[in-house]
Amino acid sequence: MEDKGKNIEQAQDSCYHGWMSLQSQRVLDLKQALAQRRSHEGTADAAADDKNLRELTQKIIGDFKDYAGKRANLSHRSSSNYYAPSWNTPLENALIWMGGCRPSSFFRLVYALCGSQTEIRVTQFLRNVDGYDTSGSGGASLSDLTAEQLAKINVLHVKIIDEEEKMTKKVSSLQEDAADIPISTVAYAEEHLGEPNLAVDQALDKQEEAMATLLAEADNLRVYTLSKIIETLAPMQAADFLLAAKKLHLSMHAWGALRDRRRRECIIDAADDARGKEEK
């Protein structure tokens, strides 16, 4: 209902910004829930906090599923917008895969957090040996992954990479279709470039529909991967992982916008320098 009266691109843009706003809220929710759980480490309240964390992580998975559903509905009317979104920064679009992040990047995040948190734990241990107070830093972290958890994550990682490669081949085939009949032959035969053509429109509509199907498959793979990783992790680990993932997503958008501003300023400065040289 909220998209009534908007064109398709405005509806897609509104959907994205609603999603980003929700991500910011979930960051606060996760921080609060994790802080409460850590404050109750070793007490009778820890079990209840773990239950609350698990409910929150499931709610976040539900958010992702809802967002994927909205994207699927909107993409059937214009799927190409999702492959190079105007609401993204150039930095984000340079890193995009099938309308979003690669599912395999979730595993890289797990490994990165596992390594960094292990380093922090070692530093804290050494400081404790030297008499530093490390109270309040307890609770399960990704540095505490068991051998069983790592084995499950590694098996899933291999499976997801295989699925990614299959989908990449599909989108590559679709991209190659742009140089096939009838699009290429019509372009060659036209006297006036870019004139409306029924055969081309039908071919491009068919391609957009196929791209929309692939986008939905990619989103489903992202949701599936995230769900399976969360299932493997303990409540605090899952919440820590989701917090890191959301902060990374929001930060990349902010960093991309910052780099865009710097580029624009550099262009203006270069133009000013050129005018200054001409005046001299």
How does this structure look, described?
The protein is 75% helix and 0% strand. It is built from eight helices and no strands. The chain has helices at 8-39, 46-75, 90-95, 105-129, 147-177, 183-189, 198-232, 235-279. α1 (8-39) packs antiparallel against α2 (46-75), α2 packs across α8 (235-279) and α7 packs across α8. Mean pLDDT is 86; it is low at 122-126 and 129-137.
- Taken as a percent bin, the fraction of beta residues is under 5%
What is the chain-wise order of helices and strands?
A: HHHHHHHH
Mean pLDDT value: 86
Q: Supply Rg.
A: 24 Å
- The number of helical runs is 8
Largest sheet: none
| Number of distinct beta strands | 0
The backbone outline, from C-alpha atoms, is: elongated
- Please give the alpha-carbon distance between the first and last residues: 60 Å
Derived from helix and strand composition plus strand pairing, the structural class reads mainly alpha
Parts with pLDDT < 50 across at least 5 consecutive residues: 122-126, 129-137
Helix content: over 70%
